[in-house]
Design a protein that fits this description.
It contains seven helices and three strands. It is mainly α. A three-stranded antiparallel β-sheet has the order 1-3-2.
């Protein structure tokens, strides 16, 4: 393998952990070579350090991406919740009062959910039909991020009443 192809492969790399590990391992190897003037120690240090740095960099990058994705999902849910109509919000508040993001259709019919609100939330893909864990009854569920926003809004509404 010639040096040009090797360099092209390194710089075309899309794996964040590998990119950071390659840079750090090369830096460690160069630093140790400049200090000790022994290429064997430098090479072994770079080879040994590479997987350690790769694991650490990949873990840190994954945690960052998860946190970023979670914040984006929360922001989108908040923006969507703020655009909902009063009927739609009342449907979501019934879920909050029920205590979860899923309720049976029997219970949903008993609390007399607004048909317009239910249909609108289904159209927005916030509300969906599902099965209970026992697989025997049909249930209705809502997006968990929207449910979290509904809980926060419902708590704020209740605080205003007191």
């Amino acid at each position: 393998m010639n040096i040009d192809r090797w360099a092209e492969r390194i710089y075309a790399e899309r794996d964040f952990g590998r990119s950071i590990a390659t840079s750090v391992a090369a830096g460690v190897g160069l630093l140790l070579y400049l200090i000790t003037h022994d290429w064997v120690i430098a090479a072994f240090s770079a080879v040994i350090g590479f997987p350690i740095v790769r694991i650490a960099a990949s873990a840190a990058h994954s945690a960052y991406k998860r946190r970023e994705r979670s914040e984006t999902d929360e922001r989108k849910a908040k923006e969507l919740f703020e655009r909902l109509s009063a009927d739609e919000k009342n449907v979501l508040y019934e879920f909050v009062k029920c205590g979860g993001s899923v309720m049976s259709w029997f219970h949903a019919n008993r609390v007399n959910l607004s048909e317009t609100g239910v249909a609108s939330l289904m159209q927005r893909k916030v509300l969906y039909s599902t099965m209970t864990p026992d697989g025997m009854r049909e249930a209705v569920g809502i997006d968990v991020d929207i449910f979290d926003e509904a809980q926060k809004a419902y708590a704020r509404e209740r605080e205003k009443d007191f």
